TrEMBL record:
Solcar repeats lie at residues 2-91, 109-180, 195-286. Belongs to the mitochondrial carrier (TC 2.A.29) family. GO terms for biological process: nucleotide transport; transmembrane transport. InterPro entries: MCP_dom_sf (IPR023395), MCP_transmembrane (IPR018108), SLC25A32-like (IPR044712). It is a multi-pass membrane protein. It is found in: Membrane. It comes from the Eukaryota. This is Peroxisomal nicotinamide adenine dinucleotide carrier.
Length: 304
């Protein structure tokens, strides 16, 4: 089994568990992002209040609306992302070693290379899985896709491609902090440069926090475009594309509109990322250990 496939399967497994834990927060956040009430004087419900309101008015099951396609989407997107990330990362590591032989660098992948690797992986992932996430967004806000035809499945793909900057920044920060931690640990104890599951959890949380704060406005625009367009005469709620959505949000809602539900998103995405990183790394370690043991057993069984 290739290292890329191991990472892909581990990423899918970690993503599923993280999704199950944080899905109610994701549902509430999607509603907050796509809420189009322009009356600023109306008191906005907090995350917990909104969750309680959904349960009271629609039942517990609505907090998990669209869970099935979301799990499918998470499995596909995380699996593909980590699969291609490992492939591109391996190539970057080979080039880094080649540069080291020429007297350039220390043989490790730098921040810029990490950013490029994560961005390329994210672009491949977005183009392959965007239709699934359009369906998930519609199901979370109780709307059915019926007005845009086949190409409607790629609504919001432009801001989503730009949103590749989020996981790209996340992985750049994560790899940089992980590299620094391992280096410091190896200096104090050459025989131990490993990291614990808790440290992976914390590094994943910090990396996602930084990336989410920077890219959140684009996430809101993406959600608006993927949600069903309001079929009324009020053109303030009708978006023809990414630029149109941005301009109308600025004009009618102000810059506040780009940060709707940000506190909920930070809690949900940071927790999900931390859980995903921790579980994914543990699964990768377990898979590699099993393969090593299986290889040793196979060699011994062939001995006379």
């Amino acid at each position: 089994m290739s290292d890329a496939l191991i990472n892909g399967l581990a990423g899918a497994g970690g993503g599923i568990i993280a999704q199950l834990i944080t899905y109610p927060l994701q549902t509430v956040n999607t509603r907050q992002q796509t809420e189009r009430d322009l009356k600023k004087e109306k008191r906005k419900l907090g995350t917990i209040e909104q969750m309680c309101q959904v349960v009271k008015q629609e039942g517990w099951e609505r907090l998990y609306g669209g869970l099935t396609p979301s799990i499918v989407g998470t499995t596909a997107s995380q699996g593909l992302y980590y699969y291609f990330y490992q492939i591109f990362r391996n190539k970057a590591e080979i080039k880094a070693l080649e540069r080291q032989k020429k007297g350039i660098g220390d043989g490790s992948v730098g921040m810029l290379s990490s950013l490029i690797v994560a961005a390329l992986s994210g672009c491949v992932n977005v183009l392959l899985t965007n239709p699934i996430w359009v369906v998930v967004t519609r199901m979370q806000i109780q709307e059915v896709y019926d007005e845009a035809g086949f190409w409607g499945f790629w609504k919001g793909v432009f801001p989503t491609l730009i949103m590749v900057s989020n996981p790209a920044m996340q992985f750049m920060l994560y790899e940089t902090m992980l590299k620094k931690l391992k280096k410091e640990r190896s200096l104090s104890n050459p025989d131990n440069n490993g990291v614990t599951a808790l440290e992976i959890f914390l590094l994943g949380a910090l990396a996602k926090l930084g990336a989410t704060v920077v890219t959140y406005p684009l996430n809101v625009v993406k959600a608006r475009l993927q949600a069903k367009q309001v079929a009324t005469g009020d053109r303030r709620h009708q978006y023809k594309g990414t630029i149109d959505a941005i301009l109308k949000m600025i004009r009618y809602e102000g810059f506040y509109g780009f940060y709707k539900g940000m506190s909920t998103k930070i809690v949900q995405s940071v927790l999900a990322a931390a859980v995903l990183f921790m579980i994914k790394e543990e699964l990768v370690k377990g898979a590699r250990l099993l393969l090593v043991k299986d290889g040793i057993h196979t060699v011994k069984s062939k001995l006379p």
